[in-house]
Amino acid sequence: MSEPAKILVVDDEPQIRRFLRLALETHGYSVIEAENAEAALRAAVTRRPDLVVLDLGLPDREGFDVLAAIREWSQVPVMVLSVRARETEKVRAFELGADDYVVKPFGMAELLARIGAALRRRAKDQPPQPVFATGGLEVDLGRRIVRVENVEVRLSPKQYRLLQVLVVNAGKVVTHRQLLGEVWGAAHVQDIQYLRVFVRKLRDRIEPDPTLPRYLVTELGVGYRLRTPDQLTEAG
Question: Structure pTM?
């Protein structure tokens, strides 16, 4: 029998840590607790968790600092769990390398589903496969061929590059700045309206109904996410 996944819960509120411990252990996870940034970083190094649930408002340092420090040496999934709901906070977290962002108060069922999805992605995490498939969308990275429901779709070079960046980061939120920088270069990282136009054109090519995107979804004020098969199932 495999060992349960280890989840590091970083929060300065004892009642939140107790609540999360009870819920996570009930669902078969092993829980490590940390009440501040110093304890969190020590546990991340010595205990090697499979996933980190991270609050931003810590007593000794900002949670952003913890996230940045972890990303210097590890790609462990980090899920931010915070009362801060502003788009600027979310954007900063994703640009520092967060895998997900959940705003308090939260539903435990949703949190567990997001944790499960993040752990499944981590288990599959490896260099991008030559062919990425989700639902009826198939992207052959090696041959630069895109198919929708087994029918080849022609994309412009910029449309394909945009889709390629999303495929490489499938399942994760990619911020506006990251996409603009990757596809158009650093001089264009503020051209969000330009990006929206290209996303709309890309959706016209790959979505069954571009007005109700199924594969390429918007994270309001933050960026875009290309859904994995697991996420498609969760979305219904």
Answer: 0.70
